[in-house]
Amino acid sequence: MQILPLFNLLIKSLLQSGAKRWLLLALISLLPINAFASHLALGPDIPYAVMSDTSQQQTVEQVYAQLRHSEEIQKKIFSRGYTRTPHWLYFKLPAHFFAGNERWLVLAPNFIDDIRFFYRPEGSQEPWVEKRTGDTWEGKRGDIDYRFPVFRLPPPPDSVKGYEVMLRAATTSALLLDLELWEPHLFLQHAARTTSFWAFYLGIAAIASLLALTLATLLRSKRLWSITAVSAGYGLVACVQGYVAWVVPGIGLTLQHYLTSIA
């Protein structure tokens, strides 16, 4: 008996029955999209100035003096392709972004080697508060246990306009920065939805890969061995989504770093 006709018949019967509504709701609940939650993104919502540090020796104060009055403002997602040159970004987080409450800053993707994040009240001479993360950083990668680095930012004092921020990013692979500012409760909803989706996706992929490997071993089929080899791509997806370092602490971060570099 053919499996595919039976599968098609099952789908048609579900769509023609009352299960259609429940099936649609289940699929919507797994969609990894941001339409259900609001956040502010670096570039479109948070303009920034940028410069490259070819000497790789400039300090935050030296770069700050050059970027704070820059007229070349960027409003696109920051991306520089494959480069080993560190880049500095300067931007502001106005007080109305916070509305008197804490905000969570999320940094992605996972394959940036070294990210240094400095902030202080705008216009002040206070020391910079430094946060650090990245693939090669051996310290704590964030304030929240999550697949991507997440830092908690307190609301700025009432007497200032907001925060000014300096960010240094350096890597040995593609330099891309997706920075987002979230309200905590909205981020938790977003994280639960996207993590559920990717856990479901990677779980199905793992089962399919294991089945292909088992059948390839038993049947000695070249076609099944080729399917098994292609399934290795799912492991790279897990690395990009941060699951390897998240699920396997310690060695998982190193493994994720090198597997992503290969990809």
- Count of individual domains: 2
Total beta-strand segments: 10
Low-pLDDT runs? 1-11, 22-37
Assembly context of the chains: single chain
For the record, the CATH class of the largest domain is Mainly Beta
Q: Determine Rg (CA atoms, Å).
A: 23 Å
Number of helices: 8
CATH topology assignment of the largest domain: Immunoglobulin-like
Helicity, as a percent range: 25-40%
Helix/sheet category = alpha+beta
CATH architecture of the largest domain: Sandwich
Would you kindly provide a written description of the structure presented here, covering whatever features stand out?
With 263 residues, this protein is α+β, with helices and mostly antiparallel strands. It has helices at 3-16, 19-30, 60-67, 184-219, 222-230, 232-240, 243-247, 251-262, and strands at residues 39-41, 48-52, 78-82, 87-94, 103-108, 114-121, 129-133, 150-153, 162-170, 174-182. Strands 1, 3, 5, 8 and 10 form a five-stranded antiparallel beta sheet that branches. A five-stranded antiparallel beta sheet has the order 2-4-9-6-7, with helices on one face. A hairpin with a 7-residue loop joins strand 6 and strand 7 (129-133). Helix 4 runs antiparallel to helix 5. The longest helix has 36 residues, at 184-219. It is elongated and about 70 Å long.
Q: What would you say about this model in short?
A:
The protein is an alpha+beta fold and 263 residues long. The protein has helices spanning 3-16, 19-30, 60-67, 184-219, 222-230, 232-240, 243-247, 251-262, and strands at residues 39-41, 48-52, 78-82, 87-94, 103-108, 114-121, 129-133, 150-153, 162-170, 174-182.
